């Protein structure tokens, strides 16, 4: 019981609070808000994780198409319904400014697509969200620990997939590891030749 209580509260701050003639101690506790999967919950295997990750990315990409078209469409409808005033805006022709505004709205739709797609994926996969977040953290810890040193990269020897974004399976992860080791080997080998 005491161990469970101690593990829930990470840090206790004691801040003296001065009131009239006496001093009162006020205790504040902070807890760890990261929800790790419990032992009763099912754990994802790495193959299941990569399959769910692929589905999440596909959802994000599919939603990007309508949000981009919607951004262009709504901004074009707004611009088409307005009367063009021939006076320059910021020293430019109004047609150019409206065109730039339409382009900016389309790019905003393009950037909002993955955010909305991720939200839709989380809505339909509520049971796996916590497990996926835990696996994402673990995967990126592995990537950060095993990737090649950035100072070894050059134009002749570029970094292949620095964040592990192209990894779609365990076999791809092994290939990624081999490439990182090759970069380390080539970078340290060529390091002595440049002097």
From TrEMBL:
Endpoints of the signal sequence: none
Instruction: Name a GO CC annotation attached to this entry.
Output: PAM complex, Tim23 associated import motor
Sorted alphabetically, which InterPro entries does this protein's record hold?
Pam17
Alphabetized UniProt keyword annotations: Membrane, Mitochondrion, Mitochondrion inner membrane, Protein transport, Transit peptide, Translocation, Transmembrane, Transmembrane helix, Transport
Recorded superkingdom: Eukaryota
> What Pfam families does this protein map onto?
Pam17
How does this protein lie in the membrane? Multi-pass membrane protein
Q: Which residues cross the membrane?
A: 62-80, 95-124
Give the function comment from the record. Answer: Component of the PAM complex, a complex required for the translocation of transit peptide-containing proteins from the inner membrane into the mitochondrial matrix in an ATP-dependent manner.
Partners and quaternary state?
Component of the PAM complex.
Q: What is this protein called?
A: Presequence translocated-associated motor subunit PAM17
